[in-house]
Amino acid sequence: MTTDLPEASGESAILHASCVAVAGRGLLILGPSGAGKSALALRMLALGARLVSDDRVLVMRENGLTARCPAPAIHGLIEARGLGLLRVDPVDRAEVVLVADLGRDEDQRLPPRRNITILGMSLPLVLRVQNDHFPAAMMVYLHGGRQD
Asked: Residue 10 has what pLDDT?
């Protein structure tokens, strides 16, 4: 199953998203406002991930899809509802290897492989899992991938 994002002009786009990385491998977190993008990123930061960008992410085609923070004003900041903006030690960029869509819930125990196309590039897609293990599972996925 493939999902496409609207194409942006040229080789880059700024998305309403968050992005975290583990060893340079990025998870791009998509979803509507209030879906929990920053909350998932915060949970993953607590497990050892590094912040690329929160709220807005610049994605570019560069030997794959690269994510960066689009503005110095938000570099190294993440929103924690009820606490405000928190400072973290960010990474400058990450290769996006996985996309999570928090706007749709996963309803299958062993879901099929899904993909999403961003800037003409096909990437693995996972849907939100309503379970406490989701942040940890995303960390493990970034470290080791998914078995067919």
From this structure: 63
Full residue range of the structural domain in which residue 15 is found? 2-144
- Identity of the residue numbered 77: L
Alpha carbon 100 to its chain's center:
6
CATH number at residue 62: 3.40.50.300
Q: Could you read off the pLDDT of 88-131 as tens digits, one per residue?
A: 999 999 999 999 999 999 999 999 999 999 999 999 999 999 88
Q: Check if the beta carbon of residue 5 is closer than 8 Å to that of residue 123.
A: no
Whether 3 and 101 have beta carbons less than 8 Å apart is answered as yes
The alpha helices in the chain, defined as continuous H runs, are 37-46, 134-144
User: Is residue 143 classed as helix, strand or coil in its secondary structure?
Assistant: helix
Residue 31 DSSP code: -
What is the DSSP secondary structure assignment for residue 147, as one 8-state letter? -
pTM over 0.70: yes
Give the residue among 49, 36, 44 at the shortest CA–CA distance from 79.
36
What's the number of domains the chain is made of? Answer: 1
